[in-house]
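Per reviewer request, we include the raw input and output of the structure prediction for the construct analysed in the revised manuscript.
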Amino acid sequence: MQITGVTQHHLERSLEEPFYPTWIPGYPQATHELELFEVETDAGITGYGASPSFAGGLDYGTELELFLTGEDPHNVGGILGKLETIDLVGPRPWHVETALWDIIGKDAGKPVYELLGAERRAIPVYASTGELMDVDERIEYVEERVAEGFEAVKLRVTELDHLDVVRRVREAFPELTLMVDANKGWAVRVMEEPIEWSYADALEFARGLEEIGGVAWLEEPLHRHDYEGYARLRDAVDVNIAGGEFNNGVHHFREFVEHGSLDVLQPDAALATGIRGAVDVARTAERRGLQFVPHTWTNAVGFAANLHVMTAVGSPWCEYPMEPPWTPDVWSFMLEGGFEHDDGTIQAPDAPGLGIEVDETLLTEG
């Protein structure tokens, strides 16, 4: 089998109202935009990968085609070498590797998790928020998620006084598992500069979470490359420290592990490692007694890739983006069907490959 071409589609979906994600401070996001890639083969099998995008798109399908045409999609290791060149001079290419697994699974007639030696299983989901809210609004939000079957919620914070929101949610829901994301690892600087934390800030906030209790982890309180700062923080507090969603390549996770920086490793297969690399990171985490719970907040194609990885490696939680107007129908708009949870759990698709079906009408329109 050989790759015969790569076709890129810029897709977008308007939101019902503006969304203010903490990782793009001050920016009223009005659309969900992505680049969808079809990797075509001479066997008539097509694999899909997708990456987040900006208004107007990021056009690099021709460059990918130059590197991939004539390659056997089963040669994941060899193709990763070529994708490293793309990564060096252009956009991150790990979502393209997920398309290879989609092809390999379709060719074998097996879902990706089965190719990775696993059986299908239900994974608990946590509702992952994306905005800042005042206490009353956030408590109302949590009430809705608990009624839907969620047993865990991740709250977003950006300032030290946001400890009060966490405290009030904990008081209102004493049995609920809470995660807290400070979003200091990275930011998109479009409208405003992000609020950064010093090590002392991160330490103060983490100790506040210790007092509140029942927090599964504090996510990205420091910059994503501050391996030593993370290690100091982890040694100083009892609350678990998580991060790594947007680090680039498996070698960054070796740094986290060797420095003793994190309790929870969170590489996104579509953003940071690809599927093969994510499994490698997860196996390392298992050997070191660490947790592996990847970031999933891109789109439904990336969500599917991460879900297969989580199934394969036994992740204890699956991040489930849920912050209206950012809802499953929005981040899954490019698919026929989507990823609804079932009373607080979710399972990977059992169809061959990634198990997704792209809405072909969007490709014609795009």
